[in-house]
Predict the 3D structure of the following.
Amino acid sequence: MKLKALLMPVFLVALFIGMPPSPVVADSAVGVHELRLGLLDHDVDGLWSRSRREEGSDINAEVILTPSLNLLGGTVRPNLGFSVNDRGLTSKVYAGALWHYTWYQRFFLELSLGLAVHNGVTDDASLPD
C-alpha cells in the first residue's frame, strides 16, 4: 500500500526524534516536549457539515518539539503528526507550529498553523456539497 510506504519513514523519524534529549543538551537544542496519541471519529455527521462523506476512526500520533518561543503570553513549539484512517480512507501527515496558552494554571488554549499532505478525494462530483 502506498500509504504504508509513505508513513513508515515518518514513523521512524518521529521515533528517532522522540528519544529524550541528553541532560547536557542546551535549551535551544531540538528535543521532545510532549508525545500525544489519540483515537478520533472521522468526519462526524453534523459537526462540520450536513453530510458524512467518510467513515471510520483515525489513529493519531503527534510529537511536540523543543525549542520554544514565547509569544503573546503563550509558547510556540514545532509539531509533527499523522492520522491514519482504519478503513483506508483519508489519512494525513502534518507539520507546523503550535501556540499554547495556559490560563489560571487549570485551563489552556492551543492554536496551530501548518501544512498537511493527505490522500483524500479533493474533487468528486458524486459527493454532496
